[in-house]
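Office hours follow-up: a student asked to see two folded examples consecutively, so here they are.
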Amino acid sequence: KLLGLTYQNAAPAAMIGASNHFEVAIATSAVLFGLASGSSLATVVGVLVEVPIMLMLVKICLATRNWFKR
């Protein structure tokens, strides 16, 4: 709302911004530290947590849609 975006633009932008570059992070971690490292494990766990977090963001977007002009 502060940026002057409509709901139709703000909600997808929030989803894209929240989920960007996980695949690149996994590949980079595997190459730099190896598959057996704690860093690679943490990166993979991050991706597994992504789906529930994205669902919570969808719920937040739907709950705040009345903040935007129609």
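And the second, which I mentioned at the end of office hours:
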Amino acid sequence: MAATKVQRHRAIARLIAGAELHSQHELQRELAAQGIRTTQATLSRDLAELGVLKGAGGYRLQDGTPEPSGDALDALARRLLAGVEQAGNLVVLHTPPGQASALAVQLDRSSMRGVVGTIAGDDCVFVATRTASNAKELVRRLTVAASPARRKATA
């Protein structure tokens, strides 16, 4: 019997919380051991939807601390944003390796005004906005959120 998306997400969260997993292949193998068979493409989407982060210690779930609406994007930008560039109505966000997807997912969830969509690579997110002024506002917001003063104030 095929696992539902909710069942997969719960299993992924349990596995990541309980073991140090460093690759999608390892995670896929652990899921299979629990009777959950999935493709790499589906697993990749699941990880992005869950906002799973990947670092030197393997996969980890984002901090589950509830944050006021609209602040989750700022908090993630504070932790992950390494650089921001604007080119017309496009914004390029730079992150540490393996972190772009988490930032893109949070940006998609934020329903920020003027954001049409995102594309994430390993360490870079391309954000399409409706207008150059929407892009400028996004750059301003994320730059303020990621500023060193904000990092110290929230640490």
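Two things to take away from it. The first strand starts at residue 53 and ends at 55. Residues 65-69, 149-155 have pLDDT under 50 and may be disordered.
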